[in-house]
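Quick illustration for those who missed Monday's session on complexes.
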Amino acid sequence: MRDERHTFFSRLGLEKHSDAYTRYYQTHPDLQTLDDAFRGGDFKHALKLPSEVKQSVLDYVHQEDAWLRHAHHDSVAYPVALKPKPIRTQALKAVLYDEGALDVMVVPLEKNDYYSHHGTVKESLYLDLNDLPIDPKYTHAILYATALDEMAIKQAPFVESLIETMRQYSNVAKMAFKLTKVLKDHGYEALAQHREYYELPLVPLAHKHHFGTVGMANHIIHPKFGNRLRLNAVLTTAPLEVETRPKFDVKRFCNHCALCLMNCPTQAIKPHPRRNSEMQQFDEHRCFVMFQKGGTDCSLCITSCPFSFDLNASILNTLETDADIDQWLKNYLKQWGPKRRPSEPSTYKERFYGTQL
Ligand code: SF4
Ligand code: SF4
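Prediction with iron/sulfur cluster bound:
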């Protein structure tokens, strides 16, 4: 069973020399020095922008954090109707599609899908749950996704990708709060997951039920919507109809491609899979160097992936042999060049400053 206390952001949330910190690193001494180098501070202050623009971006992020905190507590406090009413799975999915979800799938939950314990990340919601066991009481997850805007993500690793990432995190959270309310109005327990509150990790769940598949960069690649996804889920006790989907596999393509690995500026993505796992070996400390240097979450592994823009399952199905894949990649690289770095001037001023901010 996975444990949220082992996640990188939970470990970084441990206050140096606190009891929880001492307890954690007594059992994981190998991580202490590495983690300490990243502890404290907010990476977003490293944004390289004119000071007044930077302040606007930081204010925007702060505003989103405050909104999310209030919305989370409102959603948790919202009462469950006393008498359960019948609920149609299709009608629930329609709530999310109406709000802009690209794909929605209901999957069953098992105990092993959950984290065993809460980590520190929920402290941003003013919740100190670290070390508490998680009760795997929800029976179903409604998985769904939106896509990061193509133009903004092409500007990675600059501020556009940070703002777009925040915007989509807020979009999927708004959808989750809305759906949670509908479920509670029908008399069922429901919990909105969002960027500051997870009871279970989404990537393994989405991979297990073939909502998408894990690519070399450890993101979920969706057969139709690719690698620019913002995944989310609502957990519930409602007796919903679950769905099964065929397996979608990108492993063979990834082994020929490796563009995310080659474009990663810190060599965080390793060329080998993890033992007994579908995930790739990955050095989170190296990845976070980019956050700290640039003030954003980099995203070059998304920008460099053919599934983010041009490739999908239908095209992949036509590439029958290894030679077909190599030829497709050759054409792709002719169009984009080996490194898919921003080639257009920054658009943050028109796109964000003075409009959304
Ligand atoms: S976000 Fe950047 S540093 Fe991190 S794995 Fe992706 S490309 Fe590498
Ligand atoms: S960039 Fe290539 S190797 Fe990496 S996830 Fe995408 S398809 Fe796979």
